[in-house]
């Protein structure tokens, strides 16, 4: 057909809503939505649909309060885990632009990606588990934050992925940025 007709012009689709509330699916609130598995077999956990929806609701409200709106850029320096998914879905719910990069990347690789898109909020893991070893992300996060601060970064949300490893909040705050722990941020 030429010219191509404009089907559903002006329609909007919320990606997060469609993932959290799948159409034509028999999903109970108590059903498992996410199984989180890492190298630490003792850390296997399940998240129900009700828990996932509530975490996304809380994170979305916290992001909205922080000024996130449509087309705001939100970045994640995070591994693949349930909290990262919550941040992604919350960004999508608000119409924000999400980008993620794994914490096993070096600082220059992270900055090559993030400097050009200028995130307003950065989610960052405090540490990662790789090859049976705990690796702190704090030093890399502080370097990344320092560079991104010149490009519009306003807030860093640190995810406590591994207990017993520094969150780095004081180091980030010393750079003049707001830095919060993910769990505490949801309860603000």
Plain-language structure description:
It is a single chain. The protein has helices spanning 15-20, 49-65, 82-94, 107-117, 138-149, 169-173, 182-186, and strands spanning 32-36, 45-48, 73-77, 97-101, 121-125, 127-130, 133-136, 155-159, 178-181. With 188 residues, the protein is α/β, with parallel strands linked by helices. The chain has one domain (30-186): Rossmann fold (3-Layer(aba) Sandwich), CATH 3.40.50. The strands form 3 sheets. Strands 4-3-5-8-9 form a 5-stranded parallel beta sheet, sandwiched between helices. Strands 1-2 form a two-stranded antiparallel ribbon. The protein has a two-stranded antiparallel sheet with strand order 6-7. α3 links the parallel β3 (73-77) and β4 (97-101). α2 packs across α3 (82-94) and α4 (107-117) packs parallel to α5 (138-149). The protein is globular, with a radius of gyration of 18 Å. The chain starts with 14 loop residues before the first helix and ends with a helix.
